[in-house]
Write a structure and sequence with these properties.
mainly alpha
């Protein structure tokens, strides 16, 4: 290592000992420092949101969808989390996010991809929940059908694929 690099390493180590978040409360707050919109957050609930509303949503979904098995409860949790994120996205769409210089702080194309991803995830979990409940109730359930649709307009073997 050259002399400059070694000095920089030592300075970085010394600075690392001085600063940084020390308390559990500070660490809990600082984990949201880089959060821009929270649509892809690992955490369903983020700082600044109403936790009671999230709990009420989960309660209503459990009451309405009546899960009885552990897997069904897991699917309800997934649905609730993604519905919550979708509500967050719709709030952003209405402009209920911090704006900067008159423009919203997210890329619209990415935003609509996130929104579509959340909707797909909700419906996928709903369909699996319905399948699980039908099996539990003794109904004959056909396997799920997956269709691949290409809207590119390119022809393959004389057919539009």
């Amino acid at each position: 290592m050259n002399e400059t690099s070694q000095k920089q390493v030592e300075a970085n180590q010394e600075n690392g000992l001085k600063g940084g978040v020390k308390t559990a409360e500070g660490k809990a707050i600082s984990r949201y420092n880089a959060l821009k919109h929270g649509l892809l957050s690992k955490e369903v609930f983020i700082q600044g949101e109403n936790e009671d509303e999230l709990l009420e949503l989960e309660k209503r979904l459990r009451s309405e969808l009546k899960p009885t098995t552990e897997l069904e409860l897991l699917l309800i949790d997934r649905i609730a989390g993604n519905v919550w994120r979708l509500k967050r996205a719709l709030g952003m769409e209405k402009g209920e996010v911090i704006s900067s210089g008159g423009g919203l702080m997210y890329d619209c194309e990415k935003f609509f991809r996130y929104e579509a991803m959340l909707e797909r995830s909700i419906f996928k979990a709903m369909h699996e929940l319905q399948r699980q409940q039908m099996v539990r109730n003794g109904n004959n359930v056909p396997p799920p059908i997956a269709l691949e649709i290409d809207v590119s307009g390119e022809k393959e073997n004389g057919f539009v694929s």
